Amino acid sequence: MTWMRWRPAIEHALYRPDGGFYRRPEGPAGHFRTSVHASPRFAAAVTRLLAGVDAALGRPARLHFVDLGAGRGELTLTVRSLLPAELRDRVVLHAVDLADRPPGLPADIAWSAEPPAGVEGLLFANEWLDNVPLDLAEPDGDGVLRYVEVAPDGTERPGPPLDAADARWAARWWPDGERVELGGPRDAAWAAAVGGLARGLAVASDYAHLRAARPPFGTLTGFRAGRECAPVPDGSCDLTAHVALDAAAAAGHPALLTTQREALRALGVSGARPPLALASSDPAAYLRALSGAGEAAELTDPAGLGAFHWLVQPVRMPVPDDLAALPGWQTLPS
Fold first, then answer.
1. Position 268 confidence tier, pLDDT thresholds 50, 70, 90
2. Half-sphere exposure of residue 169, counting CA atoms within 13 Å on the CB side?
3. Which of 82, 123, 192, 322 is an S-S bond match for 202, by CB 3.0 to 4.6 Å?
C-alpha cells in the first residue's frame, strides 16, 4: 500500500493529466452545483462588480476580467453575454484552469493554467481556494502535531511531526483542534494570484471559517455525482476543505471580509417576491420575476450559498462604491 501526505494525494487525485477528477470532460458541473450554476444572477452581480471596478480604476483602456478556477468557463461566458456596451470593446476575458481549454470556447476568451500578470481589473475566484491541496495534521498522545498520511483507499495513519513552517502556521491560525487543515499552500496561492494585479480588485468566494471558530475536526470531504461522500484520493471524487480565509487575507494586501448574502444584495441580487398586483397586470412578467426571486433566494440563503464568505482585496484602488457601502465589514490586517 502506498502512503503519502494529504497534500500530494489531493494533487494527484484531482489534477493528474491521466484521470484526475478535474481533468474529466464533464467538469465540476457534472458533480456539484456552485453559485455560477445556480443562476445567471450570480454572473450579473459579478458583471456589475466589474463595472464598479472599471469606474474605480478611472476606466482604463484595457480592463481584465480573470475567472480563477474557471471550470469549463461558465462564469466567463455568462459575464461575456452580460457586458454593457461601454465595456465590450475594452474588457479582456481570461479564464484560468488546469483543465484543457473547452472545445468551442469563443476565441476572444483567453485560457491559461496560471493567472495573467501585470493586469488591471477584477480577479474573481469562485470556489477555487477550497480545492488548492493542503496537508492535514493531528496531535499524537503527547500533543505533538503530526502529518496525517493517507492511502489510495482513504485509510489514514500518523506521519512525522510538522516541519517548522507548518508548525508556525498551525500555532498562529489553528491552535486548537483534533484535526488541523494546514492552509499555508492556499495562503501562498492566493497571494500569488493577487500579486498578478497591477491594479484592481481580487475576490475569493468560498465556504470558510475564521480563527475564533475553527471546526475542531476539520472539514475535508468528497463529492461525487452531486452527493457528499468519503474523501478518497483515488480520482473518483472531488476533494474539498473549507478555507481559513483570514489566514489567506493576511498573506496579501489589506482586505475586507463579508458574506456572500450581503455582497450579492449590495450588487443588486434580491430574493424579494414581486408585487402580487403584477400577476394581474402582466402574468408572464410576474412568473419571470417570481422565478428570479427564487434564484436570488438560493444565492443568498444564509443556510446555503449565502453563507459563503467573500474575501475582497483592493490593489492600488479604492473599494467600488457598491461594496464600500456595506455595513459591518471587517478590516483584516495584512
1. confident
2. 24
3. 123
pLDDT confidence of residue 285: 46
Q: Are 235 and 15 in contact (CB under 8 A)?
A: no
Cβ atoms of residues 316 and 199 within 8 Å: yes
pLDDT (tens digit per residue) in 287-296: 554 455 556 6
Q: Is the dihedral angle over the CA atoms 141, 143, 149, 153 positive or is it negative?
A: positive
pTM (2 decimals)? 0.89
Per DSSP (E only), the strands in the chain are 4-5, 63-68, 91-96, 109-112, 119-126, 135-139, 145-150, 156-161, 180-182, 197-206, 208-209, 221-224, 227-229, 238-240, 243-244, 255-259, 309-315, 330-332
Q: d(Cα 50, Cα 67) in Å, to the nearest integer? A: 12
* Separation between Cα atoms, residue 294 and residue 283, nearest integer Å: 16
Strand-pairing partners, residue 259, are 309
- Is the alpha carbon torsion for 136, 139, 145, 151 positive or negative? negative
CB 80 within 8 A of CB 105: no
Distances in Å between the Cα of 29 and the Cα atoms of 37, 213, 226 are 7, 30, 9
